[in-house]
Design a protein that fits this description.
The complex is a heterotrimer of chains A (about 400), B (about 375) and C (about 260). By secondary structure, chain A is α/β, with parallel strands linked by helices. Chain A has two domains: about 5-180, 3-Layer(aba) Sandwich (Rossmann fold), CATH 3.40.50; about 185-410, Rossmann fold. Helix content of chain A is about 55%, strand content about 10%. Chain A is built from 18 helices and eight strands. Chain A has helices spanning about 1-30, 50-55, 60-70, 75-85, 95-105, 125-140, 155-180, 185-205, 215-225, 225-230, 235-250, 275-285, 295, 310-320, 330-340, 355-360, 360-375, 390-410, and strands at about 40-45, 60, 115-120, 145, 265-270, 290-295, 345-350, 375-380. In chain A, strands 2-1-3-4 form a four-stranded parallel β-sheet, sandwiched between helices. A four-stranded parallel β-sheet of chain A has the order 6-5-7-8, with helices on both faces. In chain A, helix 7 (about 155-180) crosses helix 14. The longest helix of chain A is centred in the N-terminal third of the chain and has 30 residues, at about 1-30. Chain B has a domain at about 10-150: Rossmann fold. Chain B is about 50% helix and about 10% strand. In chain B, strands 2-1-3-4 form a four-stranded parallel β-sheet, with helices on both faces. In chain B, strands 6-5-7-8 form a four-stranded parallel β-sheet, with helices on both faces. In chain B, helix 4 (about 70-80) packs parallel to helix 5 (about 100-110). The radius of gyration of chain B is 20 Å and the shape is globular. The mean pLDDT of chain B is about 95. By secondary structure, chain C is of the alpha/beta class. Helix content of chain C is about 40%, strand content about 20%. Chain C has helices at about 35-50, 80-90, 130-140, 145-150, 165-175, 180-200, 220-230, 245-255; strands at about 1-10, 10-20, 20-30, 55-65, 75, 95-100, 105-110, 115-120, 210-215, 235-240. In chain C, a hairpin with a 4-residue loop joins strand 6 (about 95-100) and strand 7 (about 105-110). The mean pLDDT of chain C is about 85. The chains are: A alpha/beta (about 400), B alpha/beta (about 375), C alpha/beta (about 260). The interface between A and B is large, with 47 and 51 residues. Bound molecules: iron/sulfur cluster (SF4) (3 copies). One iron/sulfur cluster binds near residues 36 and 98 of chain B.
């Protein structure tokens, strides 16, 4: 057993290394774009990236950059710089960090490559639109807003017409910016890869259905980077195939990510990037494994049945009917499904000061899960990047108390 | 001012007023949360539109649903719902604006037992043809949805009539703003606030009459009174203003608010609706062409240009920004607008407020210091 | 069988010595800078008072923020469990506990067997904590101990609507400047805390809970208790040992070594 574990652990480390290399290569490419006569577009994490790839535009994700800033604990410094520029400390810390980064070229990779255009899709929040407006003024580059009306209860025919029209406008925008024609066949190919990538990602996440779970949400947070930044590329498919197989093997060999997995938990909201290791250790210490999370699953896509041959219609609906763009009750339904699917004993909710669309509604979600599934949840107040709103001792006490409670509940 | 007392009573007893109106007229009362709600459609349905604007009561019930980093406007609206103080509402309309209102709509729908609930998912960008089409589409849908909820047929004729009513209201308020901008002594800032606030609460037909009479009254007064040139003319800007207390503080410090850029103020009456065929398209036209709110996108620097234009036009000496704490759309806009103001040489003061406003003493000092500086 | 519970809070440290389920002796002191030394001195104080030796103690549980700096404890348990266990021990009818502590406040729901069924804690904000009261006491220049009695003499509680301790402080300052009665301001502060804390418990959904106990030092403040009762609409039991409740719970839990029963 330990031999297998050793071997699989080695492969895991190798994969992690590989991910780091791919990401490094990707950022080098992006930084070299000018020299290589390539255009750079900044795009929001939930935005339609496939048309950019089809046009050979390099897509850069300020949110991914924000996550890196958070993980490298450079968030506070940059947030404070943004505040000195006049940005309120209550604004999304991804935005604050990114806005400050542009003026000082700071951060872990010395700033992002300058954009030639900005593509903002508001299916995650309204903050991104304001943030991209700031950047459009700063860089004086064109901004395309892909406006995805909120599906509180449905995706209506009015929305369908609107978003589909915008998809066409988006193509025209790109054609104008790049001086090339959109190659629909190429786009379909990329779209297919994207869907397949999402599928592989889902399969990877689903390996945690086994007990013990071969990976934790903290692993998922790490491995997510490619599906965000490079979805639709063959490289990504290959990576996730490897990852899925590795996790499958781990689960077949009965190797758990957490020694003595006793409690299975679900994470809600963005990761707390600046405390990943600390939190991961804290939970593991008590035999608690975060087997699933709502954040990384958001990239699996909710609508599976879309007809991918109709690029316009499927893109419009897929990008509009996405997790954060749904009503709180719809989101709760998805959480309830996950509770059953991954057999979780409790939910850990990150009440994230930065992110209102994700955090507001959590109190109701908490009650729904308790009522429907009899499952308790723990609320952790924090911010994904700005660690000034984090208190280790408070959070530690809450986690311990939560685990004590789960233990009592299980014993009962 | 002859009708001031009536306006005051309406504002102080807004829910009592609405309850009574419902009883007396049998009209359905439809609440709404943002100035992008087309009141005309509600009026055309024979119902009464009532804008809910936070709460004056202590917020505690809403705290079981919304975290402390939510703006007081949203928390306050939810509080009014949860406490049952607005249980006379026949329905509530939530236009899509910011992330906080988006979730407020969900939480309301999931927790408030009375009245119907309607989302009006407006476009966020306004500058493209497809967005403008969608605006028309979604208003049509709203017309159907609201008609169904109220069990009435909303006809073009009724819409046209409603447009005439709101146009007349807007024209009167604009006239009052202009008279007062020329001579701020005509009426205190608090009274103007009261009048505008009342116009979101009162029966619109009655309001129309009172406003027309007020305009006539003020015109006469304006001809008689000499202008006071010693006042330091100020423009207030921000999202909403529900703080009548700040006007006397500014006035006592020697200032006068001569215009504003609030959706509870001048943004409410800018842009009339074309009267004519296809009333829905014309209502959509107004929502697109009116002075934009930062929760929507029309261009990159329109708001800064608008405020600078106001300063010039109204001959103002400075701008005070009132920003509600935890309001992202406005907070995102502020630094760049401030930069434009600096470049234009316009002094700016920022006041970040939580409902309620900070201690009076401290505020007074800040206003005085700012006005001294001008 | 003797057991000891030691509760190292952010402001005060408490110790309880129990014998077969009965409280024998207790110690309270300021936590101070050196928590380990404080814990030690509480421990020794308890032994000395009862003339006991270390060997006669069968279990020690440490709790509170400083629980990890009590090297001689057999194990540590969070204050949530301890307050629940303490309250249940003092009154087995209790199904919910509210503790307003120095840095945070918590509401706990108990199951019929006295286990913790669910709990919530305040979000990261001083409103609704003991800290909030301290700030206000300083602004008013009134001794915190007098808050309870003074507030009962209020005729019309002042309205304090700010949640944030900093904003609320300036609100209080301006009320003072306006000449508002001190008693009314204090009653207003209590009402603000009351509604804040009950909003937090509202998140728990305490359906069917009829017996609620308030523990912790703030429970001694009758004004806060009255304010909570007003929002909740039912009488609230006050732990007879207020701030010792956590330590008592810890001593109870020390009885069964190894498991948090
Ligand atoms: S963290 Fe939330 S607010 Fe910030 S960009 Fe992401 S979705 Fe928007
Ligand atoms: S500020 Fe904008 S979003 Fe807020 S109520 Fe006014 S118009 Fe609506
Ligand atoms: S626009 Fe600002 S003030 Fe208005 S509801 Fe949204 S966050 Fe609150």
């Amino acid at each position: 057993m330990s031999d297998i574990k050793l071997e699989l652990d080695k492969r895991k480390t190798k994969l992690e290394k590989k991910m780091q290399n791919i990401m490094a290569g990707y950022y080098i490419d992006a930084k070299m774009a000018r020299q290589n006569n390539k255009k750079v577009a900044w795009i929001t994490s939930g935005g339609p990236v496939e048309p950019l790839l089809a046009m050979d535009v390099i897509a850069v994700y300020p949110e991914n950059h924000g996550a890196m800033i958070g993980a490298s604990k450079m968030g506070v410094d940059l947030c404070e710089k943004a505040e000195a520029m006049g940005y309120s400390s209550d604004l999304c810390s991804y935005a604050r960090a990114d806005i400050a980064c542009c003026t000082v070229n700071g951060g872990p990779i010395g700033g992002l490559p300058e954009p030639d255009m900005l593509v903002c899709c508001n299916n995650i929040c309204g903050s991104v639109m304001k943030w991209y407006e700031v950047q459009a003024r700063h860089f004086k580059v064109p901004l395309f807003i892909y406006d995805t009306p909120v599906c509180h209860t449905d995706y209506t025919p009015e929305m369908k017409r609107y978003v589909e029209a915008q998809t066409r406008e988006y193509f025209q925008f790109l054609e104008h910016e790049t001086g090339r024609k959109m190659d629909i066949d190429r786009l379909k190919e990329i779209g297919k890869n994207s869907v397949e990538g999402a599928q592989l990602w889902q399969e990877t996440l689903d390996t945690t259905m086994s007990r013990p779970s071969p990976m934790t949400a903290f692993d998922a947070f790490f491995h997510l980077a490619l599906i965000v930044t490079l979805r639709g590329t063959p490289q990504t498919l290959e990576y996730y195939r490897e990852l899925r197989d590795l996790m499958k093997e781990r689960s077949q060999a009965g190797i758990g990510a957490v020694p003595k997995e006793t409690y299975r938990l679900l994470w809600d909201n963005l990761p707390i990037w600046h405390r990943m290791k600390w939190l991961s250790d804290k939970f593991a210490e008590h035999g608690a494994c975060l087997v699933a999370d709502t954040y990384t699953s958001a990239w699996c896509g909710i609508k599976r049945e879309l007809n991918r041959d109709d690029v316009i219609a499927s893109a419009a609906e897929g990008y509009t009917y996405s997790y954060l763009n749904l009503g709180t009750d719809k989101m709760a339904e998805l959480v309830l499904t996950m509770v059953d699917k991954y057999q979780v004993d409790g939910i850990v909710m990150h009440s994230n000061r930065s992110c209102r669309p994700y955090s507001f509604g959590q109190y109701d979600l908490q009650k729904i899960v308790e009522r429907e599934k009899g499952i308790p949840s723990l609320m952790i107040e924090a911010d994904m990047v700005d660690d000034r709103s984090f208190s280790e001792s408070q959070v530690a006490t809450r986690i311990e108390a939560f685990i004590e409670m789960l233990r009592q509940r299980k014993g009962a | 001012m002859k009708h001031l007392e009536e306006f005051r009573q309406v504002v102080n007893q807004s829910f009592g007023y609405a309850r009574q109106l419902k009883k007396d007229s049998g009209k359905k009362i439809v609440g709404y949360v943002c100035s992008y709600t087309p009141e005309e459609v509600i009026l055309a349905a024979g119902a009464h539109p009532l804008r809910i604007l936070g709460t004056k009561e202590t917020i505690h019930l809403a705290d079981s649903h919304l975290q402390s980093y939510c703006c007081s406007l949203v928390r306050g609206i939810l509080e009014e719902g949860l406490s049952g103080r607005v249980d006379f509402l026949d329905g509530m309309v939530f236009p899509h604006t910011c992330d906080s209102v988006q979730r407020l709509s969900d939480i309301w729908r999931m927790n408030i037992p009375f009245g119907f609930h309607l989302d009006l998912i407006l476009p966020v960008k306004l500058d493209t043809l497809s967005a403008q089409h969608y605006m028309v589409d979604v208003l049509q849908k709203f017309r159907t949805d609201l008609g169904r909820a109220l069990q009435v047929d909303i006809t073009d004729e009724a819409l046209k009539k409603a447009i005439r009513t709101t146009n007349a209201i807007r024209q009167s308020i604009r006239a009052i703003y202009e008279l007062r901008s020329r001579n701020p002594r005509l009426m205190t800032g608090t009274d103007l606030y009261t009048l505008v606030r009342a116009s979101m609460i009162m029966d619109r037909d009655r309001l129309n009459i009172l406003l027309a009479e007020t305009v006539a009254e003020l015109k006469v007064k304006a001809d008689r009174e000499k202008e006071d040139t010693s006042l330091k003319r100020i423009i207030l800007a921000g999202g909403i203003c529900n703080h009548p207390d700040i006007y006397p503080m500014i006035e006592n410090a020697g200032g006068a608010v001569v215009w504003d850029d609030f959706c509870t103020g001048a943004r409410y009456f800018t842009e009339l609706i074309d009267e004519g065929a296809e009333p829905i398209a014309r209502i959509a036209g107004r929502l697109i062409n009116r002075v934009v709110c930062p929760a929507k996108h029309i261009d990159l620097d329109g708001r800064a240009r608008h405020i600078i234009r106001l300063v010039k036009e109204k001959n103002a000496r400075g701008v005070i920004f009132l920003l509600l704490k935890f309001c992202d759309p406005h907070a995102f806009d502020y630094p760049d607008i401030k930069k434009s103001m600096d470049e234009a040489g316009i002094p700016v003061m920022l006041l970040e407020i939580d409902d309620p406003i900070p201690a009076e003493g401290q505020l007074k000092t800040r206003f005085e210091a700012f006005l001294e500086m001008l | 069988m003797y057991t000891i519970g030691i509760d190292i809070g952010s402001v005060t440290a408490k110790g309880a010595l129990m014998s077969d389920g009965a409280l024998v002796s207790s110690q309270v002191c300021f936590t101070g800078y050196n928590t380990a030394a404080t814990a030690r001195s509480i421990y020794e104080g308890l032994l000395e008072k009862e003339g006991l030796k270390e060997t006669s103690i069968e279990g020690i549980v440490a709790t509170g923020y400083g629980r990890n700096s009590v090297p001689f404890a057999d194990r540590t348990v969070t204050e949530i469990m301890c307050h629940a266990a303490g309250a249940y021990h003092l009154n087995p009818a209790v199904r919910a506990v509210i503790d307003i502590g120095g840095q945070d406040s918590k509401a706990i729901v108990l199951s019929d067997g006295g286990r913790v069924a669910n709990f919530v804690m305040n979000d990261k904000c001083a409103a609704g904590t003991g800290r909030f009261l301290e700030v206000m006491a300083r602004a008013l220049e009134v001794d915190l101990d007098q808050f309870g009695t003074l507030s009962l003499q209020a005729d019309q509680p002042a309205k304090i609507s700010n949640l944030c301790a900093v904003f609320a402080e300036s609100e209080v300052v301006s009320l003072i400047a306006k000449g508002e009665k001190r008693e009314n301001i204090i009653a207003g502060i209590h009402a603000a805390i009351g509604s804040r804390v009950m909003a937090m418990t509202g998140r728990l959904g305490m359906w069917g809970v009829t017996t609620l106990m308030m523990t912790g030092g703030v429970a001694k403040n009758t004004g806060v208790v009255k304010a909570l009762e007003k929002v909740w609409g039912n009488p609230i039991h006050v732990s007879p040992h207020a701030q010792l409740t956590g330590a008592i719970g810890a001593a109870r839990l020390a009885r069964v070594a190894g498991s948090p029963e």
